[in-house]
Amino acid sequence: MNITDRRRILGPSNAKPLIFEKPESSEQEVQQPQEKSNVENESMYIKNGLVSNANGSSYLELKNGELSEQCTILLTSVYGPRPSRGAFSSKASLSVQFKEVTIEKIPSGELKEICNFLSNIFSAVINLERYPKSGIDIFLSLVQNPTTSDEGNLQPIIAACVNGITLALADAGIEIFDTVSAGTYKRNVVAFSKNGTEVVGLWKDKEDDTENNILNVIESCKESYLKNRKVIIEYLIRSRDADI
Amino acid sequence: MTDSIELRPISFHPDVLARIAPDLSMQRHLSLGLRPSLRSFEEFRNVEISDGGLSFASKSDIDRKGNNILGSNVLKCGKTMVVTSITGGIVEENISGSYVDDESAESSNGADRLSRFGQIYPVVEVERGRVGAPTDEEMTLSQRLHDCVLHSGLIPKKALDVAVGIRSTDSEGSSSILYPDEEESALSSGLKSRRKWTYVLYAKIQVFSRDGPLFEICWNSLIYALKTTQLPRAFVDERTADLKIPVSMRGRSATIRETFDIICDASKFQPLRLNEENVAFASNFAIIDIDPEAELPKDGDEMQVDQGSSVLLADIQGEAEEASVFSTISVISSESGRLKHFKVVGGSSNASIENLKKSLNLARLRASDLSAKASNGAR
Amino acid sequence: MVYYAQSARSAYPGQLICPSYELEKGPDSQKVIRYIAGAGVAEQDYELNGQNILALTATVVGEIKFDEKTKEAVPSAGVAEPKEGEIEETVSTEDEKHYIVSVTDKRQDGQAVNADFANNLPREGDIVLARVTRISQQRANVEILAVENKTTPVDSGVGSNGTGVVAAGGGSGGATFSVSQASSDLGETFRGLISSRDVRATDRDKVKIIESFRPGDIVRAQVISLGDGSNYHLSTARNDLGVVFAKACNGAGGMMYAIDWQTMIAPSTGFTEARKCAKPF
User: Fold this and answer.
1) What is the rounded distance in angstroms from the CA atom of residue C271 to the CA atom of residue C253?
2) Which of A219, A231, B292, B357 is most buried by a 10 A CB count?
3) Coil/strand/helix, residue B333
4) What would the pLDDT profile of C230-272 be if each residue is shown by its tens digit?
5) CA-CA distances (angstroms) from residue A68 to A140, A156, B61, B105, B257?
6) How many CB atoms lie within 10 A of CB A213?
7) A58-243 falls under which CATH superfamily?
8) To 10 degrees, the CA torsion angle through A98, A103, A106, A111?
9) Under 8 Å between Cβ of C171 and B137
10) Which residues contact B155 (CB under 8 A, 6 or more apart)?
11) Which chains touch A (3 or more CB pairs under 8 A)?
12) Maximum Cα–Cα distance for chain A, whole Å?
């Protein structure tokens, strides 16, 4: 810490972070729930419109397996279309920001990559021509993240982000071409649109060792995509009907 | 087609009026005996709290890798949601006296009292769809929270002391940890007296759906989070327990003391002991003058509002109130009425003694309500 | 089964609504039905059963509506060049119909104001309410607060970003430039300008901005163009456009009311000030 941040109250500079004793039995036990988490035990809780000062927002709670502690909580808010400054543009510009609310575990380089990946997907999905001279900003807040840093597997989070953004955009009433969703398989995330006939994004982790056949990966991801998509659409239709 | 011309005054939808002329919208509401939020004048918003299951101590299953949250709280007040997480660090206090840190400098200035109390270092972030440096509001909030915690004497300094245990490994390779306060046995008390560590507490406060002044909401959330805070037991390994390395540098010899690796016990923790009588909750009030000019035309005398020319509003919320109110009161009061913080901004309205008294009373009632919630939530 | 006759359904983004062309077979004639994408609907290439078709899909959550459109109102491009051979044969007997397909949220129908600002950005012709922020000899700068009879943006304003003068907690987020450049630089509201030639319809060259607007006034104005990158261009050259709310003495005095189209009076003091007022009726 060489530059002092005068805008925040930082506390004593010689403080050291808490180091917890490493449990010895970690290796096997930690791996197992991840293997299980793929399709069958996953459950999703959705609530739209929690953030009142955003144009649209979604709250996603993903439970991997039966353990209630293993829970990913993601809050997505969409701001805009807001005025953008500078040159006239006939289309909206899109930005995606990702932030961890409680514990910061993901290295910032990876965060940038995720944001890039997501904004590429949604630039293709949002009907940007409808919103001239404006910017649409998407903010992702990861409230709880059960995975640990050293494993570095971000796929469940990326998939949750895609689903969360789609829900938030639908809540905001921003025009999107399709209910985009993502499915995961091992270390891959694939985002589809048009009922799985088009791939809009593919995230392949560097540590992926087993699967080399890309088509197989896509097929496996599609399975979980279709499931996610169904849940999202059901929620959108149901919550709308309930409101009327 | 008839030729009649319909004369219709321009009228605006309430939402539009609230945006273009918030003060007018506010006055119209007040003249009806209501506030723009449709609450009555002295009505507070309901508060829901939970610990959110974020902290490591709240988990039954131990997968504590990377989770160093010691206490947490999720508070919902109306639509506003505050997520507070308390993390910690350990700092070694130098008790040799050669180095005077900020706090002891302060205490020598006559603020003796403060040196007995612990601090917390809060960072407030308000989600508002922007990135970049913290805003004024975030900075002032953090500073106010920090100052109020320190000055209210909420955390006794003793509560932050680390009772360092020693892990000893016997000849068979099995290790055991001894804590000074658990076993009065032959634990080397020498270490304890020579070295002193204290916990440092950080709070990260994330606000969603900002809908009015935040200090009070953040404060309450912080208090709730502190009440759930558990400090892990910490120990040092016996093998590294006491090392001194003599070095000589440019002709001068000095003794560098080995910095210990303090390791936290992942299974043992104790609650942070707060000064219970200093636990207090915050509430805010606004004083606003009723402008007779802006009142809606009355149908009959029964609509007459029997208020004086200025009214006290509890728990400021919404754009119309925030933008048209210039006189505010912020109170941190305990259940029993012990005042911890009191701030009045005079503004343009008359902050009369009656209004101040009334606000203090309401703040006390509010505090007892909130503190009842804490004990319910703690279970 | 023709698509436009179907009962109203709920739609989600990406849902197929109908193809862009359809042939309706009556007992003795054939009609070509053309569907045009309206609000909340987009035309896309869609692969269905191994075949690529041009179809209309929903882009928001809401209810599907079909509105018949008279021929004149439709751009004639589609009429001039029939695409399929089949249609060509029946040109002589064809009766073409046009439907505008839109997806709207039922909750927000019939409301004067809805929360859906996203799809109601100011457009040419819209009436907006704006606050004057700065005046000069040539123009008045304004910030657009609301599109009239449509909506107010939810994600701007004091409540969400803490701008403005706020006593409690010192929330002056956007007010100080040096500290929070990000927010004040980007701004939270759409800006516009009213050039002196657009203040009123007559005597355009003699308009003095200072006698028409003051900073802080709320102005009802019409969007004449999307303008450049930063400003919408607005006009008040109509009887029902102009200042609707103003305070006397640059905001220090009380509310003023229009007594004619260029004078406002403060009832509490009796002072009058010059403004370009909107007709209050």
Assistant:
1) 10
2) A231
3) strand
4) 889 999 998 889 998 888 887 777 788 888 888 998 887 888 8
5) 22, 16, 10, 48, 45
6) 8
7) GHMP Kinase, N-terminal domain (3.30.230.70)
8) 10
9) yes
10) B117, B118, B119, B120, B149, B201, B226, B272, B274, B275
11) B, C
12) 60
Q: Which residues on B lie below 8 Å from A50 (Cβ)?
A: 79, 81, 208-209
User: How many residues would you count in chain B?
Assistant: 379
Joined together, the tokens standing for residue B139 give 């900075």
The mean predicted confidence, pLDDT, of chain C is 72
B216 pLDDT tier (thresholds 50, 70, 90)? very high
Distances (CA, A) of B66 to A34, A190, B124, B131, B212: 17, 28, 22, 26, 34
Give residue B222's pLDDT band: very low, low, confident or very high (50, 70, 90): very high
Report the residue from B60, B69, B139 with minimal CB separation from A102. B69
Does residue B160 carry a pLDDT above 60? Answer: yes
**Amino acid present at C63:** E
Q: What is the DSSP string of C35-97?
A: EEE-TTEEEEEEEETTEEEEEEEE-SSEEEEEEEE-GGGS-THHHHS--SHHHHHTTTT-EEE
For A:81-140, CB contacts with B below 8 A are 82, 97, 101-103, 105, 137, 139
pLDDT for C145-176, tens place per residue?
A: 877 765 445 444 433 333 333 322 223 333 32
Percent of chain B with pLDDT over 70: 72
Domain residue spans in chain A? Answer: 58-243
Q: Is the backbone of residue A129 left (phi > 0), alpha (psi -120 to 50) or beta?
A: alpha
pLDDT at residue A233 above 70?
yes
Q: Which residues pair with C66 in a beta bridge?
A: C101
Q: Rounded to the nearest 10 degrees, what angle do helices B136-152 and B215-228 cross at?
A: 50
Give the strands of the sheet with C16-19, arranged side by side.
C16-19, C51-58, C41-48
Residue C174: what pLDDT? 31
Best residue of A84, A101, A142 to probe chain B, by most B CBs closer than 10 Å: A101
Residue of C nearest to B19 (CA): C145
Residues C55, A192: Cα–Cα separation, whole Å: 19
- pTM summary value: 0.83
Structural domains of chain B sorted by starting position, each given as residue range(s) with its CATH number in brackets = 15-44+280-298+308-378 (3.30.230.70), 45-95+110-161+196-229 (3.30.230.70), 162-195+232-271 (no CATH)
Nearest CA in chain B to C247: B21
B257 band by pLDDT with thresholds 50, 70 and 90: low
**What domains can you pick out in chain C, each with its CATH number?**
1-71+94-118 (2.40.50.880), 126-163+183-274 (2.40.50.140)
Distance of alpha carbon A79 from alpha carbon B198, whole angstroms = 43
Q: What confidence score (pLDDT) does residue A162 get? A: 94
CA C12, C18, C19, C20 dihedral sign is: negative
Reported as a single tens digit per residue, the pLDDT across C13-42 is 888 888 888 877 777 777 788 888 887 888
Residues present in chain A in total = 244
Q: Please state, in angstroms and rounded to a whole number, the distance separating the CA atoms of residues B228 and B234.
A: 19
